[in-house]
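Lab notebook: predicted structure, single chain.

Context: the supervisor wants predicted structures on file for every construct in the current expression panel, including those that have not yet been purified. This is the next one on the list. No modifications to the sequence; it matches the entry in the shared construct table.
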Amino acid sequence: METNGTDDEKRPFPGVPESEDEDEAVIVSDAGSTPRSRAESDNAREGTVQASEGESCSPDTCTCGEQTADAADTSDQRVATDGAGVANVDENGELGDLEFTEPATDVSQDVYDDAPDTRVGIPDGVDLETPEYSIRSQMNDIETPDEKTWFMELDEAVIDEGRCIQCGTCVAACPSDSIGIDDDGLPELVKMCTGCSLCWDFCPRGGLRYERQWKITGGEDNVKGAGDPITEFSAKVDDDWTDNAQDGGVVTGMLATLLEEGEIDGALIATESEEDAWKAESFLATTKEELIENAGTVYNQTMALGNLNLEQWEDKLPDKDWEDLSLALVGTPCEIEGIRALQDFEWDYQKQDEGVRAIDYTIALMCTKNFNYQSLMGEMVQEQRGIDPEDIGKMDVLHGKMMIYGHDGEMILEEDIKNFHDAALKGCDECADFTGFCADVTVGSVGSSDEYSSVILRTEQGVKAWDLTEPNLEYHDLEDKSAVGKLQGWDKKKAFESLERPFDPDAPRFIDYTDHAENYGTALNPHDQGH
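Prediction complete. Output recorded below exactly as produced.
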């Protein structure tokens, strides 16, 4: 067909086959309808088709009887085959205006021709088997391999059992930052657990065989007596600020010296909560004044290793390169065991990693037990003995006594420490590490007279800290080594009675959960048992 004129005139209509005879050219005017000749189509465009004399048909009326109901229903679908299904294209390929249906207001609109769950597009005769929701329960019934340990195992065996010692090692160990600290100071899952097993492996009451860690850190003799000290002293700092310090103020004095000498950039210590009197919280001291202000002992745990995320201390470490940071850690023996074990492995501890690597000095506080804050201060001190924690200026555990002083220095209470054992953390009974075998320096009151601290140096790093501090100290040889040894022996005996597993310094460092469950009777795969 020859055409001339505009580009639109040259463009062939969709669905129109070429023909030498224009009168016989076939046009498909309705999708799925019978092809018609050019002449028939011309008549259709004029609005009528002559059927016989006296009868006519149009798109809206039929008197000949040949236009059926089905044809009438589809008469409005004037779409070329290339534009089938497009409602605004006529048989000549011309675009018309779109018409929209106004949405109903204040009522639900049924937009489905069928039920919403009806599947479409399935060929006739094909039956597809679709899994039902029961597939989820079937998957949940799949047993987890015993060697894969999840946080819920730690929860089952340690936290729910009341054996957690609140050291925070599990928080520091988690490579996905999935473990946080709840309002009670206990570990809790805050993101999905990956089942990496590290929280279990490094827990001193779970997978970490802490007595093996002593030997790895300090040597073969670290399982006897007071450990394997290089040297021991009774010492005190001779300065006015020691009045509020514990015993001789050696810990504060040593940390202040390390800061002044540029050996450390800060020290992770305990401070008293601003909201709750005598409740301990972690604090990063970066000045001598902050150390002196927080001198003294608060008798509950701080989850210290759960606070090694340096981002929370960013304002106290301005312009510091975290990779070059050097910190000291003051903690209980279990906390020192935890940090030593973490540092032995080059795994990535995520947000805690720089903090774990930054600990260069460790100072352990001699410890037989630590306490649950609410049980000790809320119940035993305030409710049972009528002492408001706000009225307490200093607390001390000395010579087997719990001693509480007012802000004026006057003693308010002196009572046998045994009377407070119900407030102690249950997991402390399993600890045989009174003197902190894994620390660089151990400091406490046992073995020295009043106003002096007993100091045990265990590593070359500890000797270095002592040598720097020694000019500011008044000191002599440890006054009573046997007192330290006796209390260490008592502590170990108590642990042997409480431990459900064998005490074996020569066994592997990590305890499989299956072995622990066998000794303690805890559930294997507790999530399969509705944990």
